[in-house]
């Protein structure tokens, strides 16, 4: 994911105090803060603390960015009813055979080595890459393709492989019944680069792919070569058993997810749109989400929503001159005032009855027996009662910092530059402000908010303003100018929210629950599991796939403890048994989808 935040992983913070905030940084770093409100000890806050843990655990392990309006038909109907576990009946024997095969050491070691071998091919992708076919730095992906061919002979014999834009991969596995909508499984081949300065901090070298008996080490082990190799291993295992699908399946693997999928996912999208048409897939599963234990329950959270993003470049242009005769405020001073005003007017998060965040809360109210009764009551009341909804929102804003990060639009002033010399007044100064846009908002709404906040300040300093093409004031009569623009031209609206009622959601939920039931891991098989809809704070390749299906799930079937230290940072490692569960999930999904009437 462009997780520029690590999606797969939950940070856990433990201190003597009762309440920690766990955050996932842009590059997968974990941060723990103690809440200043912890010791206030009100019932309300305590209640919220418990929910916070759960929400952080579930929500923040997602990576980086956003989505759009929620369907009206879903409103008010969400009660977090749980699907029954779905296992195949026609393919039942095959599934049982696979269970036996997965239990053999031979299969396990071969699968772990498949992942290790892929990690050893360093498919790092940098932001400054030219186009595939022109910039030779992409060519390492060719080595990965050769490796995949040698490692997955059945896949390469039985599926039809199409290479798009030089290195993106699409495998079509044609089913017998062309009237069934195919299922699309996606992952990415690229990994974020390893910072050379951190090499000595790695327990095992970052491109070793070393299996130490518990962990498989290296860059990409969590993000996202486990998704790539896991899905291919699952298909290879089915083909080895002679499985021939009724439904068609498509596997698609991007090449630059970590920089927005601009070459890979876009080419895959165009290919799939022309080969299959719009809205032609029954279901799409990409990286993201995951599951984890909380209050004695395994919470599994496929992300149905994804935030949008906008990086605003705000530039102040003022006349230059000699520093000996300065105005009261230079362009840099004015820029500082503009930033101060922005930070004094952050986005206020909202709790919407049909929003994903409120759905998560309802799952806790419905299934978490350790949630205090008052909390449960107000969450349930808010389903119909506007006063209760507002009260809940107010409390979340006051007591739960994570609420605004997960549910709201965020802004962060991240880059600043201006001025060239101490004896010259700065003619130009600028900042770049990163925004993650809430699923209920939009790029347009954010731009309007930004302009509304900065215009009074610009006017005060006698500057005109161009806010994303809309002019304020008279540029020719002003003492200077403020220019707002999309810094990198990659503005993104929040993703359309995947319906959480209906067949596809029931199918993915039932498949997750069935996989957990069949898990090797005792802990999981004995504990009750609940599926709740998740919200992704970062963007994956799915940002380009909206038109392929309405049913996009960002979900990597892994426990929050299956990654040693998160993604995008030092000591990325995947728990081997967790990798096995991913393979099991893919196989169960394929076998169930093959015969399910839900899709
Ligand atoms: C704004 O700046 C212009 C250009 O420097 C100047 O002519 C004008 O008087 C200023 N207006 C105010 C209200 O200060
Ligand atoms: C989906 O298709 C519409 C209509 O062709 C297009 O305007 C839009 O940009 C597409 N969205 C994505 C995310 O590709
Ligand atoms: Zn990823």
TrEMBL record:
Annotated CDD domains: M20_yscS
All residue ranges annotated as the Peptidase M20 dimerisation domain in the record: 304-454
Gene Ontology MF annotations: metal ion binding; metallocarboxypeptidase activity
InterPro entries linked to this entry: ArgE/DapE_CS, Bact_exopeptidase_dim_dom, Pept_M20_carboxypep, Pept_M20A, Peptidase_M20, Peptidase_M20_dimer
A Pfam family: Peptidase_M20
PROSITE patterns in the record: ARGE_DAPE_CPG2_1
Positions with a binding annotation for Zn(2+) 1: 223, 258, 568
Sequence intervals crossing the membrane: 44-63
Annotated GO CC locations: fungal-type vacuole lumen
Active-site feature positions: 190, 257 (proton acceptor)
Keywords: Carboxypeptidase, Hydrolase, Membrane, Metal-binding, Protease, Transmembrane, Transmembrane helix, Zinc
Residue ranges of coiled coil: none
Sequence similarity: Belongs to the peptidase M20A family.
Protein name (database record): Carboxypeptidase S
